[in-house]
Amino acid sequence: MPARGDAARWRRVITANVECRWKRTRWFLFAAFYAVWLAFCAALAVIGYPAWRVAALAGVLVALLVSHVARAVSERVASACEGDERQPFAFIVIAIAMTGGLHSPVLIALMGAVTQFTIRRGICRATLATLAALVVLVAAMVVVPQGWIGPVIPDPLYSVSALGFLVMSVVLHTDYMSLLARTVETTLGQIFRSREEIAGQALERARELELLSSKLSHELRNPLGAIKALVQLSAREANEPEIRERLEVVEGEVERIQAILQGYLSFSRPLDTLRPEPVALGALADDALAVLEARAESAGVSLRRRGDARLVADPRRLKEAFLNLVANAIEATPRKGHVEVEIGERDGQVRVAVSDTGRGMPPEVLERLGTPFFTTRDEGTGLGVLLARGAFVQHGGTLEYESAPGRGTVATAVLPREPTGRCVDGALAARG
Fold first, then answer.
1. How far apart are CA 144 and CA 148, in angstroms?
2. For the chain, which terminus, N or C, has the lower number of CB atoms within 10 Å?
3. pLDDT tens across 175-210, in order?
4. Using alpha carbons only, what angle is made at residue 289 by residues 305 and 350, rounded to the nearest 5 degrees?
């Protein structure tokens, strides 16, 4: 999530862009703005409004016009587009104070000016200070004598002027908001395109690195196999028990490296096309448990399976998923514990739950489960969960974990009766 400072910075950038575009392309609206005010000054003079008030109002208007023209022709484009929104606002406040105060028709124009000022500046200290000053000025107009703020403008000039200022405010405000909306839409489009380009480049780079790593892992398998064979041969010919024991340690480490490389190769290669056929999950789970029976006996963990279901799936991929899930459960279960595979049906879908009586996992570990190479075991790789999830996702199913410290872990897979054919990239499928 972006920081609040970043959001404010982007708002200022978009607002400044809109301000520049508006002032450069909407010259006719500004011309109409000055035309309405000049017509208002002329009408005041015609009805006999105090001459010095009309002259002062016209003088302030001319000063505002000169400042606007100077900014428009200035070579300093940035300064011409920023920082001058206070001047029209101040002019309107002065005009209200000189033409009747709260009884002035200019009061209608103030509403649009306040709204537009707030949009440009945002809710910040400057905006709040300006609004507070406006409240003070309005309160002052209530208590000062009428003679200080000028006589009330009579009808029909009052009604015509109020209507003119209302139309002017609506037109300026609507045009500014429409331009702001189009600018935001354009900016968001550019951001989304940039994000897609960056994501595409990152994905392409990730694929290149994945291919390179896969080739490297594949090339390392042959020398490791040769090393293992030589270590085994040396261990058989060794006469001293100490040397034989050390060679067996080397052989075990080589086997561990081979297992890590094999897991990475299984994770990084693209998923094969599914070869679905009718499958009895009970028999498939029994085959996986039979493969892992020796490991479970060595760890002092009992294995059992309950329930059965039939579906159309790729038995090779599902057996690989079962092997990974059950192997992880065995590793997490202490001696005299048990691992259970429960198969059933619910709501027209097949449900497979692999539960253990292990130590369980806290929420922060459970959230990271399935992240590549994240594992809670010293000799683990963290790829077993990814491979299992990839197999279930490719069939159109899901894999979820439930766990708590001291209560064991349950890995629940939900599969449709027939695969949906979602064959996607191996890494993406494994991440679910």
1. 7
2. N
3. 777 777 777 777 778 878 888 888 878 777 766 766
4. 50
Higher pLDDT, 354 or 407: 354
> Minimal CA–CA distance to 415: which of 431, 432, 383, 391?
391
Checking if the pLDDT of 381 tops 80, the result is no
Closest CA to 329 of 271, 431, 409: 409
- Please, are residues 318 and 279 in contact by the beta-carbon 8 Å criterion? yes
**Residue 343, SS3 per DSSP:** strand
277-431 under CATH 3.20.20.70, yes or no:
no
**Residue 369 backbone phi and psi in degrees, to 5:** -65, 130
CA count, 13 A, side-chain hemisphere, 207 = 10
Spatial distance between the Cα atoms of 81 and 115, rounded to a whole number of angstroms: 19
pLDDT score of 431: 39
Q: Which amino acid is at 36?
A: V
Q: CA 249 → CA 23, 234, 255, 293, 423, distances in Å?
A: 79, 12, 10, 23, 41
- Tokens at 168, concatenated: 């002017």
Q: Where are the domains of the chain?
A: 4-197, 277-431
CA distance 73 to 247: 86
Tokens of 305: 């399976």
End-to-end CA distance of the chain: 22
Distance CA(202)–CA(183), nearest Å, equals 28
- The Cα–Cα gap between 125 and 131 comes to 10
345 membership: H or E segment, kind and range: strand 338-346
